[in-house]
Amino acid sequence: MPHHEAGGSGTDGAVVAIFHQDNAMKDDQIRIVSDALHVLVLKLRVDRLDTWSEKLKGLTPLQLHILKLAQERPNLLLGEIRQAFQIPQSTLTSAVDRLEFRGLVRRVINPRDLRSFGLELTEEGALIQQEHDRIDRLVAGKLLQCLDSEEKRQRCCEIMAEIAGKMK
Prior knowledge:
By secondary structure, the protein is mostly helical. Helices cover 61% and strands 9% of the residues. It is built from seven helices and two strands, in the order H-H-H-H-H-E-E-H-H. Strand 1 and strand 2 (113-121) form a beta hairpin.
C-alpha cells in the first residue's frame, strides 16, 4: 500500500486515467479489489506495523521504507531516495531528520558523489530494519496462509510481483 505522508497526490485523476486506458476493467472488478484491499489493510494492520512489534512504534511507513532502502542500497544519494518514493524534498528531509533524531540513520558524504549526502544506518537503525524485515515476512506469511494450496500461493506471488512491477 502506498504511504500517505506526502499529502494529496491526485490519485482520483489516476483512477480516472486507468478507466480510460483499459475499458476491459469493469466496475465490479474495481470494487472487489478495493474492498479486498480495505479488508487486508484492516486485518493485517499494514498501516500500523507497530501493532506487530513495539520496536516499530512511532515510525511512519515512509520512515520504514527509507530504512529498508538505506539498507538495501547503501550508496544511494538522498535525491535518488526522494525520486524512488516520488515525494517532495521537504517530506524526505523531515522524515530523515526524525530518523536521525531517533539515532537510526546518519547523513554521510556519498562516495559516488562527494558533493551529495546519502544515508547510513546506525547500529540501532540496522536492528530496527531487521525487525521491520521480520514483521514484513510475518505479514506476508499470514496473507499466504489464507490460501489453501501451493498452486494458489504461487499464483498469488506471481500476481503480486506483476502488480508491483507495473506500479509507477
